[in-house]
Design brief:
Length: 506
Amino acid sequence: MTDDLFAAADAPDDVLRPLAVRMRPETLDEVVGQQHVLGDGSPLRRLADPQSQGSLTAPSSIILFGPPGVGKTTLAYIVAKQSGRAFEELSAVTSGVKDVRAVLERAHERLVTSHKETVLFIDEVHRFSKSQQDALLPSVENRDVTFIGATTENPSFSVIKPLLSRSVVVKLESLDDTDLGTLIDRAIASPRGLEGTVAIDDDARDEIIRMGGGDGRKTLTILEAAAGAVSGGKRANDTGKPPVITPDIVGSVMDVATVRYDKHGDDHYDVISAFIKSMRGSDPDAAIHYLAQMLRAGEDPRFIARRIMIAAAEEVGMAAPQILQVTVAAAQAVAMIGMPEARIILAEATIAVATAPKSNASYNAINEALADIDAGHIGQVPLYLRNAPTKLMKSWGNHEGYKYAHDYPGAVAPQQYMPDELVGREYYRPNDRGYERQVKENLTRIKPILHGTGTSGATGTGVQPASSEPGHATQSKPATSPDQHASPQSGSGASHTSSDATAQTD
């Protein structure tokens, strides 16, 4: 907590601050990137205006939401400095309700005694508990402080609604390559930076930008490390020219690029969403890229395997039903083997789903059926389809007239299976891709038989039905009990039980 915004700049000469701190912009015009939130009339511009003190229209609370290294803390500093407000800073990691109340009391006293407003900046505000965030509400409501919170997590889920409703949310984006290049060039030349003591070739500059991954602080940290490695504290080599940072130097100080991924934040959901949509869209290269992002960020491979299984059922379905078996086997192998070898199995399963023919007919079918159930469209099971393991249940008419499908040509009996209230309802509509084309052709032949409007030319069991009307018994072998039929392999009267029989007692 300090009223001195840039105490680092006034530090003793023998204390050298990190390059990223020394290069921190001092005005909004020096900020690199984020121009979409820094235009004239924007909340940050208005708040940084000295005339905004005492203004009834200036925002009283701002939440800066964005990934690390994009300038959230810097913007809070600049707003306070340019507007002439006092500055108080808390970290949600180390501060509690007591600390919050102490700052708010000082801010109120400062406002009453010297008529000076205070910017209260809370870094990582998403880590504050509900009670800690609640403690801010009265002071924000009464404008005792201008609250600026910084968070890397979506404030819709990490900030309490009362505080969120009183705040303007400003979404900051990762810095693009041009922005990062500007930071590098500025830091090399600036008296606050490296003062021209090193040079950098274009390939090394591009390498640092790639390694930075949109993070300005990370980019300057890599540059500082590379400058130290190449210069060793010397300002020039034997030729009088500054030493040059090369790609080899950059690689020696930083060999892994920054992966922008938070397993519990928006990145987690954004990347897995892109991963699933890439498999759905039949782009194996994009799917593998997002898989690599998740693996390199430390995502649980079992979670990824579960999502691939779901995609196999939802996106591929009956167009290639064997793909579900592939993904189940992959999930089992991942659980048995673990990383790093599991990456190969996940890649194979990902490519299998991405390159398979696609159908969401099964997905749509169950969703439509569930929607009917939820809407109350629930019919009665026809009597001839009901179970009847007891004499009492037989006396009710259960099972009477049921047509055993295997006693009919092609194992398709002319029989209504849908409840009367839902006759004609069609949930499953196969498409013409992959194996589902064959399924569609089969259903085209089967449905007229089921509905009694067609006949099958396929060879059946030789036992012909007595009637094609539902509710009439066939001339098949008499069942020894409901859902039981004499075995065609035995003449002794032994019976086999069909798979739809269930154990039930009176």
